[in-house]
Amino acid sequence: MQSIPIERVTLNDFFERCYAQSYPVVITDVVQKWPAFDCWSPEYFVHTMAEKRVQVAYTQEDTFAYQNGEPKYGRANLPLAQALEKVLQTQPDGVRFFLMQQPMASAYPELMDDIRIPDWLDENLITINFWVGSKGAFTPLHFDTEDNFIAQVFGRKRFTLYDPAQLDCLYPNDKTDKYSHLSRVNIAHPDHHAHPQFHHAEPITVTLDAGEMLYLPSHWWHAVQSINVNAMVNFWQQSNDLKLYLENPTGIHSLWYLYQDNLLQSLDGLLDAKNTSFLACAEVMLNRDRQAAVLLAHAGLIDALMRLDLCEGATKKSPNELQNLIGEFYRRGRLSDVDLEKIQNWRFLALQTFTDEVGPADAAAMVDDVKLFLQQL
Predict the structure, then answer these.
(1) Mean pLDDT in residue range 5-13
(2) Residue 72 to residue 109: CA distance in whole angstroms
């Protein structure tokens, strides 16, 4: 199928007519102004931090893929100079190396002065990653739950993108899979017998050249191929589009991915910004996707429990502290035996959505009962 072209725009045009559309575009006049654009190269990295030890991924299959919830590639801890030597050339045994998703501020502070954090992003809310890939390295089709600004500093990469509305054509991993944000389709060699609807998917392909920045809105599916040795920096920041999680097929699918990661608590800032709540979203979803409604209702229960006893200015508790919190509230008499049973039953219903359908009556009852419980808490 013929690919849809992508637009290249200046930063001014991006803000005037593109950013609000949540549609991928290439910004042509940002990265070229960075010091990194003039000085970054493998030789510069070696000169700047040759003895730094780094985690480098490697594979014999070109693709840095996952299978049955586990990565199919290995990792090695090497001095940077040795890692870059391996990245620069395909090894005799066909192994490819990739410095992938390296936390830049903490792992590569020496390079931070070479880049410029886009002033339209919130420095307190972004994740900055550093990547150096060998020629031919391929990242399979997947989506991310954050807006992504990808700055290509040197070398080139080819991106194949799919609108998140095309979920049914892209065969995501099952909800139970740790990597449910990945597609089961090998887009380079699709199996049309196993994935017949993929034939109908409409891709957008773009070659990102050195000095360009790709705006990739959250939940857009993408696969990435390194055309040659290259370095890039990406900035992830949570999207402010709540409708994605309530209306878009990939956005709804991502609720189970986020639930496994953080019990949906990464969405609480977005909900606060939109002046709404998990329970309000659950009520909206009952007539659209009752499985998602159950998950959102349970997230609302967790959110309320982790906010109990917060003093002014205090930080909301972590999902990792949830069981200890419940035990502490029980010992203090804030939760009864009946409350503990309800909490356990609601967790069971949320987990049931990963493998089975929760019936309409049970889903509606859970949303109503959690709402009443929180009013009395």
Answers:
(1) 92
(2) 30
Residue 374 has a pLDDT of 93
Task: Evaluate the CA torsion angle 15, 16, 20, 23 in order and state its sign.
Answer: negative
Helix (H) or strand (E) holding 281: helix 278-285
Residue-wise pLDDT tens digits, 105-123:
999 999 999 999 999 999 9
| Cβ atoms of residues 152 and 212 within 8 Å | yes
Extended beta strands in 6-123, E state = 8-9, 25-27, 53-59, 66-67, 70-71, 74-79, 96-103
Q: Across the chain, what does the average pLDDT equal?
A: 93
Closest listed residue to residue 349, CA positions, set 337, 336, 335, 361: 361
| Contact assessment for residue 181 and residue 148, using Cβ atoms and an 8 Å cutoff | no
Task: Please tell me the predicted confidence (pLDDT) of residue 311.
Answer: 60
Region label for 101, one of left (φ > 0), alpha (ψ between -120 and 50) or beta (otherwise): left
- Look up residue 3 and give its amino acid: S
Across-strand partners of 70?
67
Which three-class secondary structure state does DSSP give residue 183? Answer: strand
Q: Domain locations in the chain?
A: 8-238, 264-376
Amino acid at 346: W
Least-confidence region, from 34-48, 74-88, 106-120: 74-88
* Fold annotation for 264-376: Four Helix Bundle (Hemerythrin (Met), subunit A) (1.20.120)
Fold annotation for 8-238: Jelly Rolls (2.60.120)
Residue carrying structure tokens 């996952």: 66
Long-range residue pairs from 244-247, CB within 8 A, at least 24 positions apart, any chain: 244/164, 244/218, 244/219, 245/281, 246/281, 246/284, 246/285, 246/288, 247/288
Tokens of 96: 């490819």
Q: Quick one: what percent of the chain has pLDDT higher than 70?
A: 96
- CA–CA dist 13, 355 (Å, integer): 45
Hey, what are 233's tokens? 């920096």
